[in-house]
Amino acid sequence: MTYAIAYIRDIGLDYFVIAESFETSIPWDRVIDMCRNVKERLARECQERGVQYAPLATCRVTQAYDAGACVYFYFAFSYRGLSNPVKVYEEIESAARDEVMANGGSLSHHHGIGKIRKKWLRQTVSDTGIGLLKSMKEYIDPQNIFGNNNLL
């Protein structure tokens, strides 16, 4: 599934389908509720934004740990008739990430935070942690060449 979404998704664009995957980590006692709630939120957000058909919204546990799991979500919808499908996708994915966070999921599992997810960073990292990240960035990359504005 990851291969299909990540590498064949471009073919979907020829057929008015936009698709992507995103991941999180979460404690075991929250996995089922989070999965259900995020999938329901994806469907609701699509409907509210004028997506004509029900989206593909599914997930799976990809890594298992004593304390929890990494969960991948796969999401696709037909953008036929939408004037700005990329904006609609970004709004829906952002709402899904809000739902992940509201259900106790992490900002990311192993793909990092970067530009797309940095707006949630202050919800998950304390002021001390932000200060530490800034200090490391300034020390290691004083010219701000690597990852320019990706995180901080």
Description of the molecule:
- The chain contains six helices and three strands.
- It is an alpha+beta fold.
- It has a three-stranded antiparallel sheet, sandwiched between helices.
- Helix 2 packs antiparallel against helix 3.
- It starts with a helix and ends in a 12-residue tail after the last helix.
- 21% of the residues are buried.
Please supply descriptive tags for the structure shown above.
about 150 residues; alpha+beta; about 20% strand; about 45% helix
Overall 3D form: globular
**How many individual helices?**
6
Strand content: 15-25%
Amount of helix: 40-55%
How far the N terminus sits from the C terminus, by CA atoms, comes to 32 Å
Strand runs, count:
3
Order of helices and strands, N to C? HEHEEHHHH
Q: Give me the secondary-structure category.
A: alpha+beta
Please list the strands of the largest sheet in the order they lie side by side: 1-3-2
Overall residue-averaged pLDDT value = 90
Low-pLDDT segments, ≥5 res:
none
User: For the report, how would you describe the main beta sheet?
Assistant: 3 strands, antiparallel
What is the radius of gyration computed over CA atoms, rounded to a whole number of angstroms? 17 Å
Concise account of the structure shown:
With 152 residues, this protein is α+β, with helices and mostly antiparallel strands.
Which helices and strands occur, and which strands form pairs?
Elements: H1 2-13, E1 17-27, H2 31-48, E2 56-64, E3 68-78, H3 85-102, H4 114-117, H5 121-124, H6 127-140
Antiparallel strand pairs: 1-3, 2-3
